[in-house]
Amino acid sequence: MAKVEVVMPQMGESIAEGTIIKWHKKVGDKVKKDETLLEISTDKVDSEIPSPASGVLAEIVVEEQKTVPVRTVIAFLETDGEGVAAASQTSSSAALSKEAPKAQPPAPAPPQPRAAPSLQQATLQPGRFYSPLVLNIARTEGVSMAELETVPGTGEGGRVSKKDILAYVEAKKEGTIGQPAAPLISRAPAGQVGIVAKPVEVPELREKYPAPFHEILQMSNVLQKMAEHMVKSVHTSPHVSAIHEVDMTNVVKHRAEHAAEFERKESYKLTFTPYIVEAVVRAIKKYPLVNCSIEGDKIIKKNYINLGIAVASENGLIVPVIKHAEEKNFLGFSRAVNDLAARTRNKKLMPDDIQGGTFTISNFGVFGTMIGTPIINQPQVAILGTGAIKKRVAVIDDAIAIRSIAFFTLSFDHRIVDGALGGMFLEEIVQNLQNFDMSMKF
Q: Which helix (H) or strand (E) holds 30?
């Protein structure tokens, strides 16, 4: 039998090492080519790594929670296949090929592929997470999203595994289960919101925080880097925030009128995110100074818009980027948001997907938050926070009316964006949404 090396992939040119989070296979297990073999974490992103070949996992060289340099041999596969000598290089070479050019903006990207219906809430809800394999089985077997949310999960953090979904399908065929119960609340259980952290024992801390009254949890790589990034941002930029009220009634009405047709055509739900993204992109084109960065006493004006969308994942906040948003229309925004969010949830993002942002949107309103003051994502100079849309009493032409209202917050770097520019930019976003073209169809 031929022996194939499995190496720690280089997830981008700036990545020097990776941490093995979890092995999905044990020694002696059979594995198919491109089947998920392990999960790794770098200082940029967490990813599921596919097997470079089909065979049997013969040896695990590097155990879970160990950090090693890229291209280090971490395991061996035994396989009968031919031409596998270079198979172990697949993941690293593929990752490197994803690096984006730094000079001229690339040509407009082709339309994003349509995502599965099961992923339609990926940008909005921090609830249960499903692997592509589980989602594919659910689609093939006709298991609805409502049913899938009731399937008990035996995986880490209550995740539904292949075994769980197959057991559910078998029980359904045998008629041993009734109608699906009410869906689970689409939020993570208390104590698991935001991150999945593992307990650790640190003697010096345990003396200070004795059990069972305290638990000591280890921050993930992603969470540590996010914390460092946020602290650095506050030290770098003099943050100022402006808050405007926005009447979302027209947007709410348009979405309600077209949601069913949109989902039928696109196979995922129409959310409020693309409406907001379109309004922001139009406002940036009018006020491009909010799309800059600062290098010493020099302003770097970006003639393209790479829009970051903050997404809550099980390992913390990740901000995938819609590249060259100025070239897209409403449908393009919707497809891009859905695709990036789905890949964030399923750990399929590449480092290039979260780099190069020029402006960020943070939608904390999905958690019910009305008003927030987000921290700027360096080296950007502004970030928009969008609050929950709620029906409120408003005065329209001296008459009392019920309107769908939200509060939008713009946090900006006062070194380059003053109150006047920040206020005008934010008001432009408000007007774009309040005067939304109700005649737009899909």
A: strand 30-31
Task: Render pLDDT for 414-429 as a digit per residue (tens, 0 to 9).
Answer: 999 999 999 999 999 9
DSSP-assigned states of every residue in 61-96: -S-TT-EEETT-EEEEEEE--SS-TTGGGHHHHHHH
The token pair that represents 405 in the structure block: 């209202």
- Active-site residue list: 414, 418
Helix (H) or strand (E) holding 286, with range, is helix 273-286
**Counting Cβ atoms within 10 Å, is residue 194 exposed (0-12), middle (13-18) or buried (19+)?**
middle
Q: Could you give the angle at which helices 249-266 and 273-286 cross, rounded to 10 degrees? A: 120
- Cβ count within 10 A of residue 375: 18
Between 29 and 348, whose confidence is greater? 29
| Chain CA centroid to CA 311, Å | 4
Nearest to 44 by CA among 66, 62, 18, 68: 18
The β-bridge partners of 391 are 404
Residue 79, φ and ψ in degrees, nearest 5: -145, 150
CA of residue 13 relative to chain centroid, distance: 22
Torsion of CA 51, 56, 60, 63, to 10 degrees: 60
What are the structural domains of the chain? Answer: 2-97 (2.40.50.100), 222-434 (3.30.559.10)
Q: How far apart are CA 163 and CA 153, in angstroms?
A: 9
d(CA 213, CA 201): 14
Paired sense of beta strands 359-362 and 382-386, if any: parallel
Terminal Cα distance for the chain, rounded: 55
Nearest Cα to 277, choosing from 191, 209, 214, 363?
A: 363
What predicted TM-score, i.e. pTM, was given to this entire model?
A: 0.62
Residues in contact with 9: Cβ distance below 8 Å, sequence separation at least 6, in sequence order: 18, 40, 49, 70, 91, 92, 95
User: What value, to the nearest 5°, has the Cα angle with vertex 389 and ends 387 and 393?
Assistant: 120
To the nearest whole number, what is the mean pLDDT of the chain? Answer: 81
